[in-house]
């Protein structure tokens, strides 16, 4: 197949620092190419994912979430990917735009509007009252997928066609010794992610804590200034955003990763990244964590700060080899690719059954392109 992938315009693929969605898109693009498919990734120009890339914006756009920025990005994406057999969109506005407007249609030689390639839309965020309305509209024209069973259970009346857990290219994740003597927090600087709770857990358990977190948005800066900075010291170190091999080294050296979340996280990529590095996780039992953490095998699921402290004190009972094996068996990029290919094939079959004609092959004038490096 010729598969078009649409990434959001906020972070390059792969990300330099924080960017779970972009990490997944990078692994998916490379995995699809390794499986023999032709992949075209619509992203930003500074991306380095080694597949054919097209873009409208040269650089990542900030702040995240600006509607007009994303709309320009996805308009260019659907024009540029019109010659693909299927489009897998990881943005919010792209599938909605394609469903009802010119981004999802073309004129044939008789001047009639024809449907474009079938669209698969993955929701990387939580299902809320607002997003359920959006994805309900998307689902009338596209195949909606979720990233965890917990997320699907919260989808309401949105017809979610498949659940595909995130996957990692495990060659990128060496198993570390866990000999650094510190606990680790990786995420973004927010109340729901819980870096302030990680500080309390680490101090009560008698361990130093290393924090590697994104601080870009105004609310993240405010949270850091008021809730985290006053507590930094010899036993709490803040590194900012850390990506790539440096983050894997940090994970591999940690005694455990702390994941004291207070929201229904749809997946939680850092949890399986830690496991891939052989590092057990102490996580609050929320969102999809029961799917990503195997209690007693890859870490401990806990209910509150007190039980998290007790779990840290028992972390030696969790074997690092077991953490890695748990991820290898369930969260490889090869498994993710196989599952998405089944989704693409089902979308193509439904598209053909509806009598839609394939689009002609052409490159949109708004897009720039780079060949695989």
Ranges where pLDDT stays below 50 over 5 or more residues in a row are 107-111, 359-366
Question: How do the strands line up in the largest sheet?
Answer: 9-8-7-4-1-2-3-16
Main sheet characteristics: 8 strands, mixed
Q: What is the succession of H and E elements?
A: EHEEHEHEEEHEHEEHEHEHEHEHEHHHE
Structure in words:
The protein is 37% helix and 18% strand. The chain has 13 helices and 16 strands. The chain is an alpha/beta fold and 373 residues long. It folds into two domains: 207 residues, Glycogen Phosphorylase B (Rossmann fold); 156 residues, Glycogen Phosphorylase B (Rossmann fold, 3-Layer(aba) Sandwich). The chain has an eight-stranded mixed sheet with strand order 9-8-7-4-1-2-3-16, with helices on both faces. About 3% of the residues have low confidence. The radius of gyration is 21 Å and the shape is globular.
């Amino acid at each position: 197949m010729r598969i078009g992938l649409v990434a959001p315009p906020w972070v390059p693929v792969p990300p330099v620092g924080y960017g779970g969605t972009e990490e997944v898109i990078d692994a998916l693009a490379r995995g699809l190419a390794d499986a023999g498919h032709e992949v075209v990734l619509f992203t930003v120009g500074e991306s380095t994912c080694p597949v054919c890339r097209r873009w409208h914006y040269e650089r990542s756009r900030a702040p995240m979430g600006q509607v007009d920025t994303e709309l320009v990005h996805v308009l260019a994406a659907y024009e540029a990917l019109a010659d693909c057999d299927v489009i897998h969109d990881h943005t919010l506005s792209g599938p909605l735009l394609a469903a009802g407007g010119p981004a999802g249609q073309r004129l044939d030689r008789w001047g009639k509007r024809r449907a474009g390639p079938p669209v698969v839309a993955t929701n990387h965020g939580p299902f809320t009252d607002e997003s359920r309305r959006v994805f309900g509209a998307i689902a009338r024209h596209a195949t909606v997928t979720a990233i965890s069973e917990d997320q699907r259970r919260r989808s309401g009346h949105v017809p979610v066609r498949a659940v595909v857990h995130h996957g990692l290219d495990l060659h990128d994740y060496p198993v570390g010794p866990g000999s650094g003597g510190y606990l680790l927090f990786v995420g973004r600087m927010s109340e729901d992610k819980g870096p302030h709770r990680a500080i309390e857990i680490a101090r009560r358990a008698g361990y130093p804590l290393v924090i590697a977190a994104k601080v870009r948005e105004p609310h993240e800066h405010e949270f850091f200034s008021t809730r985290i900075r006053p507590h930094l010291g010899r036993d709490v170190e803040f590194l900012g955003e850390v990506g790539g091999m440096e983050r894997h080294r940090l994970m591999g050296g940690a005694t455990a990763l702390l994941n004291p979340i207070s929201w229904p996280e749809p997946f939680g990529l850092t949890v399986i990244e830690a496991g891939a590095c052989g590092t057990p996780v102490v996580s609050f039992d929320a969102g999809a964590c029961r799917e990503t953490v195997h209690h007693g095998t890859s870490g401990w699921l806990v209910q509150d700060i007190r039980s998290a402290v007790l779990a840290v004190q028992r972390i030696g009972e969790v074997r690092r080899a077991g953490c890695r094996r748990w991820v290898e068996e369930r969260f490889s990029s090869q498994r993710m690719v196989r599952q998405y290919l089944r989704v693409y094939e089902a979308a193509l079959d439904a598209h053909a059954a509806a009598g839609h004609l394939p689009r002609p092959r052409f490159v949109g004038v708004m897009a720039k392109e780079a060949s695989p490096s």
